[in-house]
Write a structure and sequence with these properties.
Length: about 270
């Protein structure tokens, strides 16, 4: 089986230090987390920016730039910038950070209800972000919250707006999105092209079981305080700890871990 690519999503838009003091908020903390997680076995880092004062999600280009430059300088990680809309839904704000030309960026190809809000991604907005990624030579990580979003992505690829092989992230177990079951994971995997790569982001308590299933099925894995702040019930996690646990699980299944450069080859980035 191909080596395992581990993505670390250390911050996200929601958890604060009050929820878990290990959530990195400032650019320096995020860069330090990247260094530790690379050493532990991660090869991709998925980043969000936060306001330094109140820790809320931020669209501030300068904060993204500081994180991006620091991680580029201090690590060999593949940097994946989020274009998620929790910090602000406007296209201009979500697109601006792509001008940093990270190797990857997240792209959600449809709309979904979050537990208390609508995550709106209109066809025009998806198309505009996809075109920007193509212009800057960025590989999208296609965020799939429901099955229909796969077809939307395939349509964009058919129009020549995305290069194949595609890379998908199945976001499972969020209230309002596809439930985190083995049956659904098999269906999602069977709905993408054979040559595509894929990973799973199980939300909350689903993180570990979905990771283990993905490792066994030939997919990739994500460790993330972004949407799971616990190591196990009642015990807070650190990002590094979550990466180490995935390495352990993969070793148990005799699947080796990809370095960032090996991940670049698997994903067709080089
Ligand atoms: Zn994210």
């Amino acid at each position: 089986m191909a080596k395992l690519i581990i993505t670390i999503a250390p911050t996200g838009s929601i958890p604060t230090k009050k929820n878990n003091p290990n959530v990195p908020i400032s650019p320096d903390e995020i860069i330090q987390t990247g260094i530790l997680c690379e050493k532990a076995g991660a090869s991709i880092i998925h980043i969000h920016a936060r306001n330094p004062v109140d820790e809320t999600a931020s669209t501030d280009f300068q904060i993204f730039k500081k994180i991006f430059q620091g991680l580029s300088r201090e690590t060999n990680l593949i940097i994946q910038i989020s274009t998620g809309g929790r910090a602000g839904m406007e296209y201009e704000k979500r697109s601006e950070r792509l001008s940093l030309k990270p190797e990857m960026a997240s792209l959600t190809t449809g709309s979904v209800n979050f537990p208390s809000s609508v995550y709106a991604n209109s066809p025009d907005l998806i198309c505009a972000l996809t075109k920007d990624m193509k212009t800057y030579g960025i590989k999208p990580e296609i965020e799939i919250f429901d099955v229909s979003m796969i077809q939307n992505a395939l349509d964009l690829a058919d129009q020549g707006l995305m290069s194949r092989p595609l890379h998908f992230d199945f976001v499972m177990g969020l209230k309002g999105a596809i439930p985190a079951t083995i049956e659904n994971l098999v269906h999602l995997k069977n709905s993408i092209p054979r040559e595509a790569t894929w990973t799973v982001a199980g939300i909350g308590a689903y993180q570990l079981p979905m990771c283990i299933r993905a490792i066994a099925m030939g997919g990739q894995a994500r460790a993330r305080l972004e949407d799971c702040i616990h190591y196990r019930k009642g015990e807070l996690a650190s990002n590094e700890q979550l990466v180490k646990r995935i390495v352990q699980a993969s070793n148990m299944m005799s699947r080796k871990i990809a370095t960032p450069d090996e991940a670049r080859k698997i994903l067709g980035l080089v």
